[in-house]
Design brief:
- There is one protein chain.
- The chain has one helix and ten strands, in the order αββββββββββ.
- With 121 residues, it is mostly beta strands.
């Protein structure tokens, strides 16, 4: 998937940024049904026009569910050190961010879990 390669490249290029203009954007699974065990589903968002840096990530998960985030079960939110961020948006060719969720088991209810991107300008 081309988007994944672009995002991965950006994550290796942290830059110095200010945090005074921090805001967030959520990437949520769009009320998906998980039809069977071992399902992989993906979704994406277009970054807000004023997004310039990713400052951190927070898991957004429905109560009673567990999450794989950052390749670890129940991992905490990730906030980059003050003054650092990953360049995205108008500073780069990265204007969309995608997530892929691995569902180990079929779900009885629909899912809207996702990730909150902490963004800055």
């Amino acid at each position: 998937m081309a988007l994944r390669g672009v995002v991965w490249a950006a994550l290796w290029c942290a830059a110095l940024v200010g945090e005074a203009s921090a805001f967030h954007a959520d990437i949520l699974m769009p009320n998906v049904s998980v039809p069977h065990d071992e399902a992989y589903l993906a979704t994406y968002i277009k970054l807000p026009e004023n997004a310039a840096y990713i400052l951190g990530f927070e898991p957004l998960i429905e109560e009673g569910r567990s999450i794989l985030y950052g390749w670890a079960m129940d991992a905490p939110a990730l906030k980059l050190p003050k003054g650092h961020g990953f360049p995205v948006g108008n500073l780069t060719d990265i204007h969309y961010i995608a997530i892929q969720v691995h569902y180990m088991f079929k779900l009885k209810d629909k899912d809207t879990s996702g990730i909150r991107l902490l963004l800055g300008t």
